[in-house]
Amino acid sequence: MLKSIKKNWLNSVIKPFLFLIVLGTFVSVSYGQDREYLEGFYAVTRSDNQIFIFNFNKDGTVLVTEKNSEDKDFKELKKYELSGNNLTLHPIWDPGRIDYFYDVSITKKEDGLFTFSKAGLDYEIQKHSNWPAIMHTLFVLIALLIFNHLCRWSKWFVWATCILLPLYLTIYVWPMTTVGTAVDTWFHVAKVWSALAGSVFFTLVRFTKLNNYKWAKFIVAAILVINIAEAVLRDFELGTGFGGIYHFLNGTAGILSIITLSGWLTIKADNSRFKDMVWPDMTLLWIIAYDVWNWSYICNCIPEHAVMGLIVLLSCTIPAFYKVGTWLQARAYTLSAYMMYIMSGSRWISHPLNNVLLPDNPTFIIILAITSLGLNVYNAYVHFGMMIRRKAWGFGQPVLTLAEQEAIVATNKTFPHFIKLA
């Protein structure tokens, strides 16, 4: 009797269940082989200049990012279906915030663009290619290196490009080019003018007797401190508003970057034909820690400029390695040039097709912020350790010895003194 019940249960339940599993597997595999799909990043532009990014996956999902001109981007995962030249999107859950792509016919044209219209607005969806973006970033790096060299070469070039040109742009260009873009904020206005002010003042230090006055040297250091403090405040502002811990980690790293600046009394114009402004007590360790902190800030707060921000940092760090002590001078010149560039053409520059897109990975942002804090903590450990051992407590006094300072000023070769500080 018991054996009969087990046999009937096996025939009535188990076998049909196994049959359904085999059939479902066969159907799903067949469907997966026949199903059309898209893969990779696509840039979506709308006729009112709103930008979206589609990240298509083979599993039939697409991560839709709505680029926000104020603070944070909005991201939502959706389903998609591709049949021939027709693309449709469907919500996985509630339609949510990004609901512009439902109930429309998205059609692929002969030129490879997907297009559709909705509510009087025209949309274009185009596959992202890294090559034009890579060429753009390389062009910016080379242009900034050349701009820095021209500023070293001629003070008249600085007056023309850092005083006359931005005055014209402020009155006639930026009021039109920044509206509705990511740079239409108080921070970016403050950033461009603080960078320009630094460029002008640093040039006066180089070519006048200002480099002999302590108050002028203090202003040089204060400009850098203000520049860092602006970003620290922005990090904490966004961290408070959106609750991302990486903002607080990186903001703390920025504070450490400020308090480990020393030796501003050693700032002076050298005797080379360029009359470069050098800061002998600024170590390469501090510069590297600053670069990581600043790039982490860019990835946290303006991620669409992440790769370009790294290029801007390289444009002033590269000169600091072939002429140590000139980093701050190069930072002011290259940042001024880039900020004028991005304020004048933000819509084109921030377009996904013109930028190398980093993977959308929150873990990366957190790791970068932790690295930023770790490097700046290590720099603080080295810096204050040197202060204690050498009793270099005076305000503005150098931590490096006079011999180390002279070695930096006397040569244009790389002086990796951060290794000795360890």
Automatic annotation (TrEMBL):
Membrane-crossing residue ranges in chain numbering: 131-149, 156-174, 186-208, 215-233, 245-265, 305-325, 362-381
Matches recorded under Pfam families: DUF5692
InterPro entries listed in its UniProt record: DUF5692
The keyword Signal appears for this protein: no
Keyword Transmembrane helix part of the UniProt annotation: yes
Keywords: Membrane, Transmembrane, Transmembrane helix
Identification of the protein by name: Uncharacterized protein
